[in-house]
Design a protein that fits this description.
Number of strands: 58
Number of helices: 7
Helix content: under 10%
Radius of gyration: 54 Å
Length: 815
């Protein structure tokens, strides 16, 4: 495979292998570098696949499971080569995918269970390559040990279970094809012993146990990689299988000297991993873990001279970080020569003679270690400068007593002189400040006016501190209230929220004063959460809200005033509507209503009516009757002078005018049709023979029998109904002239005799002989010719209308 090769040697022995015998613990394949020294011992705890669906494979004997996550698409194959060339050694395999899970493997997509001895093969190598085309082979003597490789796509998942059926041998696995897997994390270790850890022990014990912080190797191993996890293990097997991670790697006590510890780095997304071993060493060579001792300049009367007292016993403990050093003797000297000659040893406490930074020398000796001399640097850090501060707060409430809420952090710029490295903690008294106990919340209500607090000012880098004071004072002032002009809730959303310009309150200020606005009094006192855009502030409490304006001079409060905001409701009215007037009924008028909801008194409102944008003179009531179409609006104003407009669209309609009626009749089936064509502005609906409906939208009526019909056309907007009679001419299909009173005569039906009174109907026999001539107004033909009854047969007719139209047809005479 065209891949970056990563050295990956995995030696798994019988005591290690149980974790890979089942699908859920499959080895995740990374890096496409193959495996060497793999072994498969035992069948695992469960059989994950259905043997009946995978007939070429029996139960597992000595199995190992591999999980393949495809990174890039391509071909995927492998060659499995046993370390022993003994033909008795027989390895089989199944492949599941491409969406396989351990709980749902399904049927294998590749399978080889050929027995090399039974198949008389030259070797016991097996696998999948591009030179073969079968996808399954075996068992026994069937096959040659190889099947065709796979075409795989990025994102797919495959499982391979390899089973050693007979023989005893480790095996190697070489990947083939162009597909790739995810790469394992890299190990950023510069050299072989780069992450070995070594500590000194002077206890004299045969097998000393010392606490090691393994996590100091974590950033080295990770390097710049992200989304990876590093764990530590006491065996390579545990590191490979991700078992028994050391619970507290920051405080791991060795169990032997030397001891090997294994670090595993795992990609949290792909689960690919890598691992490395390093040594923990304990020696009696004298090591000075710390060669710099830092104190603050606070041990004498002058806290600015860069000098202080060093307790040399405490210095020794700091140098060796509390290691066991009871068998060693330590002395300090001003120079290397003094240390070597043991001249002029220093006594404790030692006051440095060179301000801020000075070197001295420590000499250590013991019965089990050689003499060692080390230069130690003594550093004296300055204390923060003392800057006392004063905060002046306002007490503008109704019951003023000078005790109000302070934001103590407002004093920080003065206390720290704007030094970002300095932090502050506040206390009631100096002892608490020195002891760093019983600190105060920075939101603090004074208990007297004035009141002095003590402040521990700490350098966050050096941890040196000084004590300053903070004086709290309260100005008791009169609280003033300013009213912004009330606004109507006319911004398009009637929710009681509106934009205000708080600066329009015109609160008077001196030229040296500033003003800021807050939504509540506590925030104004604490100077928290100021309103960022006071010129375009939307109230947060609907309809009525108070905001607070804090006036300051410098950082001192000189007043907190109230600004009242009021949003007035618009009239609550019914929604816009549409109505109509009838042009054919000039005395009929549409009644328009302003439609006020929840009205207390009509006198609380004024009304202005407009038609098509033009004011209607002298119309000031809540109602209006109109007989003309147009767009009517009524402007409704309530007693808070808020106006809302209702629009009423008045459309014109009228009763229908019947233009004509189209008729399709004289059909031999009952499929005659009437279509009514009308004129008019209205929306019309149609009914046959039923003035009260039901009505239909279509002006066409189909599948009608012959006869007379009354067609009704109704205006949907109640401007009237019109109707007209329509006749469908039809010829009865038969008649029975047997004098029983039923169908004794034949004549056309549905012919309007008032219009076609001179129409003539001619009746013929099948030979064209004229038998009878009748009119639609007659009773009809009785089935005789010159008084003689004619036999049952088919007869023919011709209808001639006055407008010269003709219609022909036939009918039956039955006796």
């Amino acid at each position: 495979m065209n891949l970056v090769k990563i050295s990956f040697l995995l030696f798994l022995f019988s005591s290690h292998i149980n974790a890979q015998n089942d699908c859920k613990d499959a080895i995740i394949v990374c890096g496409n570098s193959g495996f060497q020294g793999l072994n498969a011992i035992g069948p695992g705890d469960v059989l994950e696949y259905n043997i009946s669906e995978n007939s070429c494979f029996s139960s597992e004997n000595n199995s190992i499971w591999l999980k393949l996550l495809i990174k890039t698409s391509g071909t995927l194959g492998f060659i499995l080569k046993p370390e022993s060339q003994d033909i008795v050694v027989d390895f089989d395999f199944l492949v599941f995918g491409p969406t396989a899970t351990c709980n749902s493997l399904g049927q294998s997509i590749r399978c080889s269970t050929t027995n090399p001895a039974l198949a008389r093969l030259p070797n016991n190598t097996t696998g999948m390559t591009g030179q073969y085309f079968d996808t399954t082979e075996g068992p026994g003597e069937n096959g040659d040990g190889f099947v065709r490789w796979l075409d795989v796509n990025a994102g797919e998942t495959y499982f391979i279970v390899i089973d050693r059926f007979t023989g005893n041998s480790n095996f190697s696995l070489e990947w083939l094809g162009t597909a790739t897997f995810d790469d394992p994390p890299s190990l950023n270790i510069a050299s072989e012993n780069a992450i070995d850890l070594e500590k000194s022990d002077y206890s004299g014990e045969t097998n000393p146990k010392v606490s090691f912080d393994l996590t100091q190797n974590t950033p080295i191993i990770m390097g710049s990689q992200t989304d990876v996890t590093v764990t530590y293990h006491t065996s390579s097997n545990d590191a490979i299988l991700d078992l028994n991670a050391i619970e507290n790697p920051a405080d791991f006590k060795n169990t032997s000297n030397q001891q090997i510890v294994y670090a595993r780095i795992t990609n949290n997304k792909t689960k690919c991993y890598n691992w490395a071993a390093f040594n923990l060493k304990i020696s009696d060579k004298l090591v000075f873990p710390n060669t710099t001792i830092v104190l603050c300049d606070n041990a004498d009367s002058n806290s600015t001279d860069g000098k202080t007292a060093f307790n040399l016993n405490e210095t020794t403990a700091s140098i060796f970080e509390n290691l066991i050093i009871q068998d060693l003797t330590f002395k300090y000297y001003l120079s290397q020569d003094d240390a070597e000659t043991e001249t002029n040893p220093l006594s404790s406490p030692f006051f440095n003679t060179i301000p801020n930074k000075q070197s001295i020398f420590i000499k250590a000796s013991g019965s089990k270690s050689s003499v060692a001399i080390q230069e130690i640097q003594l550093i004296v850090n300055p204390l923060p400068e003392i800057n006392n501060a004063t905060l002046i707060q306002c007490d503008a409430g109704k019951n003023t007593n000078g005790l109000v809420l302070f934001n103590l952090k407002e004093a920080n710029p003065t206390l720290t002189n704007n030094n970002q490295d300095l932090e502050t903690v506040f206390f009631l008294n100096n002892d608490d400040a020195i002891n760093n106990s019983n600190s105060l919340n920075t939101e603090y209500t004074n208990i007297s006016n004035p009141q002095i607090l003590f402040v521990r000012v700490i350098n966050s880098k050096t941890k040196c501190y000084s004590i300053s004071t903070l004086t709290l004072k309260t100005n008791v002032i009169q609280e003033l209230t300013y009213n912004l002009n009330a606004v109507c809730d006319d911004d398009g959303i009637e929710d009681g929220i509106h934009l205000f310009n708080l600066t329009n309150a015109n609160i008077p200020l001196a030229t040296s004063q500033t003003i800021r606005y807050y939504t509540n009094e506590n925030d104004a006192l604490l100077e928290k959460n100021p309103i960022e855009k006071p010129a375009s502030y939307s109230n947060e409490i609907p309809y009525n809200q108070e905001v607070y304006a804090r006036i300051e001079e410098g950082n001192d409060c000189y007043g907190i005033n109230t600004i009242k905001l009021q949003v007035n409701k618009l009239p609550n009215i019914e929604p816009d509507m549409v109505t109509n007037v009838c042009e054919n009924l000039p005395l009929h008028k549409a009644h328009l209503e302003a439609g006020i909801i929840d009205i207390a008194s009509i006198t609380d409102f004024t009304f202005t009516w407009l038609k098509d944008g033009v004011k209607i003179p002298n119309e000031t009531s809540s109602q209006l009757d109109v007989n003309q179409s147009g767009i009517y609006t009524v402007e409704i104003t309530n007693k808070t002078n808020c106006t809302k407009t209702k629009t009423i669209e008045v459309t014109a309609s009228n009763a229908a005018s019947i233009k004509n009626i189209d008729i399709i009749d004289l059909l031999e089936t009952d499929s005659n049709q009437i279509t009514v064509n009308v004129l008019g502005k209205g929306e019309y609906e149609y009914s046959l023979n039923a003035p009260n409906g039901p009505f239909q939208e279509s002006n066409t009526f189909s599948n009608l029998k012959s006869g007379f019909y009354e067609v009704y056309i109704n205006d949907k907007k109640n401007c009237g109904m019109v109707h007209r009679t329509a006749a469908l001419i039809g010829a009865p299909k038969f008649f029975t002239p047997n004098a029983d009173g039923y169908n004794d005569y034949w004549n056309l039906v549905g012919l309007d005799t008032s219009i076609n009174k001179n129409a003539i109907i001619y009746i013929y026999d099948r030979f064209g002989k004229l038998l009878k001539q009748i009119r639609p107004s007659d009773l009809g033909w009785d089935g005789t010719f010159t008084g003689t009854p004619l036999p049952s047969d088919d007869y023919w007719y011709t209808l001639k209308l006055e407008d010269n139209r003709e219609a022909k047809g036939h009918f039956s005479l039955k006796r």
